[in-house]
Every structure is written in C-alpha cells, then in structure tokens.
Amino acid sequence: MHNDLAADAIAVAPIVDPAHARPHATRDEYRSAVEQARGAAAAYYAGEQNLLDDADYDALYARIVASEREHPQWRTGDSPTAVVGTVGGDVEHSSPMLSIGNVFNSEGLRDWAAKLDRTLDRPVTRYTVEPKIDGLAIAARYTEGRLTQLATRGNGYTGEDVTSQARLIAGLPQRLSAPVTIEVRGEVYMTDTDFAKGCDLRLAHGEPVFANPRSAAAGSLRAQRVYDVPLSFMAYAAHGVPEEHAHSHSAVIDHLGALGVATTAQSSAGLAVCTDIDEVTAAVAALGARRGDLGFGVDGVVVKADLTADQEQAGYSTRAPRWGIAYKFPADTRTTTLLRIDVQVGRTGVITPVAVLEPVQVGGVVVTSATLHNFTDLQRRDVRAGDTVYIRRAGDVIPEITGAVPDARPADAEPFSPPEHCPRCGGDIDRSNLRWRCARGRACGEKATLLYYTSRDAMDIEGLGDKILDALLAAGHITDAADLYALDVPTLAAMDRLGTVSATNLVNSIAATKARPLSRVLTGLGIRMTGRTLSRRIARHFGTMDAILAATPAEWEQVDGIGSERAAVILAELAEVAPLIAKLAAHGVNMTEPTGPAATADTGAPADSALPLRRPDGTPMTVVVTGSVPGLTRNQGNEAVEELGGKSSGSVSSKTDFVVVGDGAGSKATKAADLGLPILDADKFARLLAAHRAGDLTTTTEILTTLSR
Known about the structure:
The chain has 709 residues and is of the alpha+beta class. The protein has six domains: 57 residues, no CATH class; 226 residues, 2-Layer Sandwich (D-amino Acid Aminotransferase, Chain A, domain 1); 88 residues, CATH 2.40.50.140; 75 residues, DNA polymerase, domain 1 (Orthogonal Bundle); 83 residues, 5' to 3' exonuclease, C-terminal subdomain (DNA polymerase, domain 1); 98 residues, 3-Layer(aba) Sandwich (Rossmann fold), CATH 3.40.50. It has 23 helices and 23 strands. It is an enzyme of class 6 (ligase).
C-alpha cells in the first residue's frame, strides 16, 4: 500500500503515474517502448514467464501514455493504449470485454471520483470496493442454467474457446441453481495452495515449475495436459441478469452467488459498499493491509459506481468504463542482487540449489533467500551470482526467483556449475529425476533424519539432543530410528556426560514414545510430499500401518489432498522405509491411530458419525485455530481439530466453518469477524476436546451450540 493510505505500509519502489511520467525524446524510442510493452503483454496473457515485472511494465506503459499525449502523431495502432489483451480467437463476445483505468495513490483515486461527479453533474450515490484478482479474464455463457461456453478475453472483442477446461475450475459450476440464461464474467486464477500443488505436478512430470500463479492459471486454461492443475474462478460482472437483480453492481454479485457462482463478495477479500470517497479510501487501505493473507494474488482494488443508473449515465471511453477504476498496488515482484547459489541436502537426500540474496522486502516480509527448485530449472533460467533478479512472494508461498534482468548482468558473472558429487557425503548423485538426490538416500542424512524423528512435532523424545545423537552415531550404537528403542541404561551411562540417572531418564523417555499414535510415527518417518497435517489425514483415513502398506494407488487417491502423482511418490517412499517400519513395529512402536476406522472397531473409539466436527453427511468441518489454546501447543491445537473429526486449515476464508480464537490471535481473528464467521473461544474449545475424550456428548453439543457470529 502507499503511505497515504496505510500507516503501516511497507517501503516500496514508487509506481509511475502516467500523469507525471516523462515522454520519450524520439519517435524511435517510443516505437521501441511499444514493441517491448506488446511483447511483455503477449507473454503475460499467454501465461509464459514474465518478461517484465508489474512495476517495470507500469512504468513503461506510463511513458508510452506520456509520449502519446505529448506527440499524438506518434500513436500507432498496436500501442498498448489502443489494444486490450492479446490476439483474439473464434468466440465473439456479446459485448466488448474492456480494460479498466488505473490510479496509483489516494490523490489519483479522489481525482477520478471528482471527475465522475462532474460527468454525472451530481455526487455518485454509492461505490463498491472489491479485489482486483491477478488472473485471466473469461466469459462463461450459461443456457437454461447449463454451462455451454467458456472464452478468454483475447483482444476484448473475440476470445479463445476454452470450454473443455471448465471442469478444472472451482467456483464455476457446470449447472446453476436456477435454469437461467446468463453470461458471467470474471477471473480464472490459482490460489497460493494450488500454485504449490501445480508446481509439484509439473516437477513430477519432468516439466519446469510455473513462473507465478497468474501465468500458471493462464497457461493451464489453454493447455491440454495428461494431468489436471487446479484452478479457481471469481465473478465480477454478468450480462442477462433479471431486472430485479440488476439495479446495482452489488445486487448482481449477490444474484450470482445465489446461483452458485463464486464471487468477490464471497472471497476472503470481500466486497465493500461505500457511501463516499472517504469510505472508499479506507476500504482500499484495509484490503491492502490484508493482501498477503488472502490466500490468492491481488494486484489492486477495483472501485465502481454501484448503482446501474450511475454507470449508464457515466458511460464508457473507447477503452474503459468511466464509472470504474483500478487502484494498483505495488507489485509483489521486486528486484535484488543474487549474492551466491548454495546447495542444500535434505534429510531424505534431495539436493536443492538455493539463492542467497541481498535482503529485500517482498509482500511485507524481508527475504534473504529463495528457492531455485532444481538444477534443470536453474540452468533454464540462467541466473548467476551477481545478477539482478526478480523475486516473487505471495502469501505463505516460499519466495522464488522468476528470472534475471539481462541488461544488468556483470561482465564477469559465471554460469552456475552443479555439483558432481553429493555435497554432504561426497557420494554419487542420482540424476534420474528433476529433483536430484544423493544415491545413499536417507542414509546420507541419517542425523537429520533422526533429529526429525525425535522432534516435538513427530515422536517428541525428551532429552535426546544434537550432541547425544552425534555421540550415538559416532559410537555405532544407532543407524536408524528403530535402534533408539534397543538402547539400554548401561550403554548410555557409559557415554561421556551421561550418568546412570540421565541414562535412565532417556531410556524411559524413548520407551514412552512407543504409545504415540500412528500419525506421529508417519510424521517422524518424513515421507516425501507429506507433512504433519497430511500424515494425520492419512493415519485417520487408513487407521493402521498394515492398511497403509497394503493400500493400492486407487485407494491412496481417496485420501483428501492426494492425487495420482503424490500417491506414486508416497508409495515409493513407503517401499523404501518398509524395513524401518518393520523394525519399529518389532520394538513395540504403536502402528494404529486412535480415531481411525480400525481403532474404532478394536478400541471403541468414536465412529466418524459421532465426531462432533463432522457434518450430518459425514464430511469434516473446516476449522482454523488462531492464538493459544489452554494446555495445547499450536500443532496440538490443529491435531485436536482432526481428533474431533474436523479439517484443520491455516487460512480463513468464506468456506471456513468456524474459527477458534485464543490469546494472541491476530489477523485471522480479524478476518473471521469481517467475514461474519462463527467464533469459538479457545477455553471452550479446550473443554470441547476434554468432553469428547470423556465421551460427554451432552457437553460437546452444548458447547457447539454456543458458536457466535
């Protein structure tokens, strides 16, 4: 956000306003700028890697506008000021899909509002403020409630038919809730979570990762692949709306939501209705402050005159509506210097290049390193130490380099040379996949693997620290996690700095972990493409380790969050660690989940239908825990949600069933209140968990009925 709209705004490079931009000195310079802008726009709309980041493109566009204002005779037909989008297609739009004008600060926003008042010869009656989704504009045609055609914006007058890809898009139903004939317009985009999934899918199929969510969405909407990349949709307009719902923009959006279409109003960003420009600037600032927590990319805010009568009276220019404007945020992409490229080896032996950066602030966070994904992708991007590079970060996505600035490369910059041998153990490297791996696999990182197994989020073995593990490994007492359970007091007491008392405590601490639930064991094993949350989900789905090991690929795909590619990786990983699993079981480590299907039959634990956070149809409620819950760590709070039958989520959205709010809650609690979501006090949540464990159905029911909006 700009400082004139938000006191806590981050410091960013200024965006160039066309009103203050410097025109080009010669016609040749102008023509060169037009060609550069058209090339960058074509790549952007085609879903390719960005040739310019947003701020650089805006500055280039501003100078083109200034040049055409100063020298109107220079203006060409292919200028980006005259052409919307990119090439057209075979689908003719029912009405032009125009662009929208931009402003870059509160002064520009107020100037636009004053000009609109003059056009109407009276004040605007009401405004709406909604997110400007960083996606691909499309038009969806419904005939008698059935989706019949989907087209990209193209050049604004004709677009490309992408109807076959509609099945990928969440929020754009195949059938509406009423048999109406209507055209819905909006943005196809990729959420931060789906972007990470999409990159994993690309890597699994031997393809480079996506450049960014926007290009990922645009490219995936056009591409016919052997795998499906998840996409989302958000509506911002419609044609053919009945008169009773067409008197205002906000009423149109409400009508679309009632038909089952995802809209900006239903999103975590919301749609604000404002009575004057002061309320508008406040709403813009509020949305900008939450930009990094929305779960999807926004590059600005769209402000519109809400009433249809005001829109009709204001009309259109040749390129954009006069009744709407986009307030552009500073770009999520920044530039900084790549200091060096390090090579890291993970606990499973995966070898990854990592960029070490000159610190730069991106999305409100100071970034000092960024992922380079894999060595093939690194060579494709050809980034080198000393380069000025583009850094992107959206929400909680790991910062990444999307490219280098070619003209800024130092003359002595050398191409990066990938390692010939494993940097950790000096052994051979398996290069058969895009993600290189030490040929020794987990054995290369035995200490890292053991530290992860013993960590608090996994088996939580108290008293077994870094130095003791080093000594145990050096003495040959252990080679894997199962060997921990064979340790005895005499062996440990004979080690340096460990007497009989400490050795006894450690043996008891290790033995106590045998009773940990299966989900903790799975987490401790460190199966690739899983983690704490997915391990809990897997354990609750299958119930026992025997069921997990016997499951077919088709059965794995029934687990929420696991597709065919991830299932293949997990199955391969389980085959690799099967001997370790057998050793752990032989030492008496528990291999069942207390609330899993098998445990229900064997131990009398509650069936899914009796879990308090299950809906009547058996599906889990989505719950977000923010702040501290009495007696629980943050991870234990998330585990408790799943123990109660719910689905734990790290982000608040309109799809969240309720939010648990405790001491120290921050922006998630605020967002829940803004969305009007039910709130459960953390103390009551702790009581709910205790009542469930005690089988007190009356108390659990009473607590859930107290959920307040």
